[in-house]
Amino acid sequence: MSAGFDIFEVKINYYSASSVFVLTMLWGFITAFLLTTKGYRYADFMFVTNRLTSHLANGLFLLTMSFLGSLTASLSPFLIRVIIFIYQDEGHITEDFLMSAQAHEFIIGFATAFLYLLVFSVLGYLFGMLIQFNKALQVIIPVVFLGGLMINSGEQGMIISIINFFMMESSFVLFTLKMIVSILVIYLSTILLTNKMEVIR
């Protein structure tokens, strides 16, 4: 954004790490989905004895992956600022630009990123497990999701309502409770639905 006057010109640039966060959530979904593929299931067979043990091991992996991914995504704005500071004129950049986030803001941002990434990870894990029952679901589920978005694009449809249920929450405590309950419901549903499946099926 820029504004010009007779004597001087003001130019404001906005820098955001939102794309980093979106790509991190996509990475979490795809990685969790890949855990359910045949190659990883054969790898499970060498270390675990049943499906429950496999689920628990994968759950710990998703927790670790989400922690590291959210930490990296939360720190990426500082890296972006440092790069801008190096390649831009120092006279137009203040020290507040480099260290503008307070400690509590960083902690809340990290916790939010962790919960979002974990939700996307368990969704990817559930999606991958459901495909093991019927390969047609890999087409049906995306079609139903995208179709629901397009059909109700001008209204408050079910999918939009679910998204708003999480993203429009103003209280961080309620947001955390919603995310934790959702993560537990999705993960436990995955375990119950696939508990009878053999590890190397």
From TrEMBL:
Keywords: Membrane, Transmembrane, Transmembrane helix. The chain crosses the membrane at residues 12-35, 56-86, 106-127, 139-166, 172-193. It comes from the Bacteria. This is Uncharacterized protein.
